[in-house]
Amino acid sequence: MKTKKVLLIDDEPHVLSVIKHFLVKSGYSVETANNGLMALDKVNEVMPDIIVSDIQMPKMSGLEFSQQFRNDFPESETLILIMTSRTERDFREQAGSLENVEFFEKPLSPRKLVIRLNEYFEELECLA
C-alpha cells in the first residue's frame, strides 16, 4: 500500500506541528503550508490525496484556496477537509457548493482527524 499524502494548511505553527505529528505517526506523508497561496504552490509540486485546511488565514483563506483548487484541478477527486469554528448558515451554504469538501469543527481533535482520514481511505478502497 502506498503512503497517503496529506497537505495540511494552517497559519498557526503549533497547530501544524501537533496535527502533522499525529498524521505522520499514523503513517501519512505530510506537507505543510502557512496559507492558501503557499498551498497552491505545494499542490503544483505534489498532488495530495487529501487536503486539511484552516478556514481563516492571511493572504488566502481556506475557502478561497478550496475554490481556486477546484478551478485549477476540476478533475481532482481530492477530499478537502476545512477546519472551522464558524457556523453561520450563509458561510456553510457558500462552502457547501464546493465539490468533495467536508467540515471539521474546531477545536480540532487530531485523533478524530486521523479516524476520519482512515475512514475516507477505506471507503476509497471499497469503491476500487
Walkthrough of the structure:
The protein is an alpha/beta fold and about 130 residues long. It has a single domain, classed as Rossmann fold, CATH 3.40.50.2300. The protein has five helices and five strands, in the order βαβαβαβαβα. A five-stranded parallel sheet has the order 2-1-3-4-5, with helices on both faces. The radius of gyration is 14 Å and the shape is globular. The mean pLDDT is about 85.
Brief account:
By secondary structure, the chain is of the alpha/beta class.
Q: Can you name the CATH architecture?
A: 3-Layer(aba) Sandwich
Helix content: 40-55%
The share of residues in extended strands comes to: 15-25%
The CATH superfamily title: Response regulator
Shape: globular
Biggest sheet, spatial arrangement of strands: 2-1-3-4-5
List keywords for this structure.
20% strand, Rossmann fold, 128 residues, alpha/beta, 5 helices, five-stranded parallel β-sheet
